[in-house]
Amino acid sequence: MALNLGHRGASAAAPENTLAAFRTALELGADGFELDVTLSKDGEIVVIHDDTVDRTTDGRGNISEMTLAEIKGLDAGAWFAPRFAGERIPTLQEVFDLAGGKAFINIEIKSRTISTNGIEQRVVELVRRNQLVDGVIISCFNPFALWRVKRIAWWLATGLLYAEDLPPWLRGAWAAPFLGLKALHPKHTMVDAAYMARARAKGYQVNVWTVDQEPDMQRLLALGVDGIITNRPDVLRRVKG
Questions:
Q1: Per-residue pLDDT tens over the stretch 42-68
Q2: Which of 28, 129, 160, 214 could be bridged to 234 by S-S, CB 3.0 to 4.6 A?
């Protein structure tokens, strides 16, 4: 049966990519969750989707130009609902402290360039230090970032994200044969029986995103996908039965 993975936690019920969202996802029946990571100015791995803090905090600015202390001074919860006021942007280590070894964690590296700022090395080191090799998968839209992960840690599971409405080089799994992937992470609308047959023939797991409607959940479960990333893990739990 497919893993139930909360998208940025249970982001329909709590502010995305916060400890509250991850805690809520597990309380609502998720097997784990997906999160996004990037580096602060001082090289700390922080959990946030956007390049800036503007949308999900009470501050403004680029993450790459802010220190961890500056990031920790922001409120990452009040924008969602008053009861979450005071929630902070977590570090990846804080997420591991909360759920490492208790939940499956899909770590999406935010990377858009061929070159690297060193985030792949830092993520791998943190996973290794926390002894969570079997409890995580590293995903990314950027095949160059996944290639770097496998060069550093061939034993670490990776998954390639892609969708049909992205720029040409991110629309398909053309890079998959060169990356030593464990999984494909397509947008759920790309997946049908023929897709699953091709993926299985090549030995890939299939984890789909972002699935919030019950008919889509039912269809994908019937197709036999390995993981479903959703903002509504409570709904997926009910659909799975």
A1: 999 999 999 999 999 999 999 999 999
A2: 28
Q: CA nearest 123: which of 157, 98, 89?
A: 157
Q: Which long-range contacts (CB under 8 A, 24 or more apart) does 190-196 make?
A: 190/163, 190/164, 191/220, 191/223, 191/225, 192/223, 193/223, 196/223, 196/224, 196/225
Please name the fold of domain 3-240. TIM Barrel (3.20.20)
d(CA 168, CA 172): 8
The pTM of the whole model exceeds 0.90:
yes
Q: CA quadruple 230, 231, 233, 234: dihedral positive or negative?
A: negative
In the prediction, which pLDDT does 171 show? Answer: 83
Angle, helix 19-27 to helix 92-99, in steps of 10 degrees: 30
* Catalytic residue annotation: 7, 49
The encoded tokens of residue 93 equal 């280590």
Read off the tokens for 151: 């060069």
Tokens of 54: 């503007």
Q: Which of 61, 15, 58, 18 is nearest to 40 (CA)?
A: 61
**pLDDT at residue 58, rounded to an integer:** 99
